[in-house]
Amino acid sequence: MCRHLGYLGPPVPLRGFLFDLPHALATQAWAPRDMRGGGTINADGFGVGWYPPGADAPVRYRSSMPIWSDAALPALAAATSSGAILAAVRSATAGMPVTETAAAPFTDGKWLFSHNGVVRGWPGAIAGLAGDLPVEDLLTLDAPTDSAALWALVRAKLRAGEPPAKAVPAVVDEVLAVAPGSRLNLLLTDGTQMFATTAGHALSVCARDDAVLIASEPLDALPSWKSVPDGRLVVATASYWEIT
Ligand code: GLN
């Protein structure tokens, strides 16, 4: 079940999180340590979104290929630095397509979003929730996947002006109510704040004074990694984080 990470802090090259740290995302793609609910490797695509210094909106690079097979990415990631990064590697849920557009992060304006998990009984289970969305939202889903639909549900609340700290856990609660047993680790950022839920999958946080890193699995052996209990919301900026 996919792995994702989010970083806020001083600008750093993307490459450390993607390739260089001992348990970087590329390692988690072929040797994840804590896959739950099926899946063994994360080879069905990847994506990375980052905010160039001074920019409001993120840049995104996605692919349907395994992250280790992209020959251009290591150099690109070494030459690109950012203080706000969201990246993911994907293990497609059975029956869902392996396409670039199904890989996180999903984006809208300033937002980047990722989902690690599965909606049980997809798609019927959430037909009622999706039915409340404007038809344009359904027609413009990135891909016919549970993750893209979850992004449409979160995005609708954000567009309606709901604060992200309410919108993200509200979608988790609403989906769990109609699709019990779903795994819904969501990760959202606007480049200054991050919101991450734990619902059925692992998540850890590593913080120092001026940086916060949230990841499905710790990227190194530093003792400062803290595991987030299930059923919680992590809210973070570069200099602050809390589990609520
Ligand atoms: N169900 C989602 C997909 O297929 C996410 C998969 C995952 O977390 N492994 O894209």
List keywords for this structure.
7-stranded antiparallel beta sheet; 7 helices; EgtC_Actinobacteria; binds glutamine; alpha+beta; 244 residues; glutamine amidotransferase; Gamma-glutamyl-hercynylcysteine sulfoxide hydrolase
SSE sequence, one letter per element: EHHEEHEEEHHHHEEEEEEE
The tally of helices reads: 7
What is the CA-CA span between the terminal residues?
24 Å
CATH architecture: 4-Layer Sandwich
Average pLDDT score: 94
Helical residue percent band: 10-25%
Count of the domains: 1
Domain Glutamine amidotransferase type-2: 2-244
GO molecular function, one term: transferase activity
Function: Catalyzes the hydrolysis of the gamma-glutamyl amide bond of hercynyl-gamma-L-glutamyl-L-cysteine sulfoxide to produce hercynylcysteine sulfoxide, a step in the biosynthesis pathway of ergothioneine.
InterPro entries: EgtC, EgtC-like, EgtC_Actinobacteria, Gamma-glu_amide_hydrolase, GATase_2_dom, Ntn_hydrolases_N
Helix and strand layout, with pairings?
Layout: E1 3-13, H1 15-20, H2 25-30, E2 46-50, E3 59-63, H3 73-79, E4 81-89, E5 106-108, E6 111-118, H4 127-131, H5 135-139, H6 146-159, H7 164-178, E7 183-189, E8 194-197, E9 204-208, E10 211-215, E11 225-227, E12 233-236, E13 241-243
Antiparallel strand pairs: 1-4, 1-10, 2-3, 2-4, 5-6, 6-7, 7-8, 8-12, 9-10, 9-11, 12-13
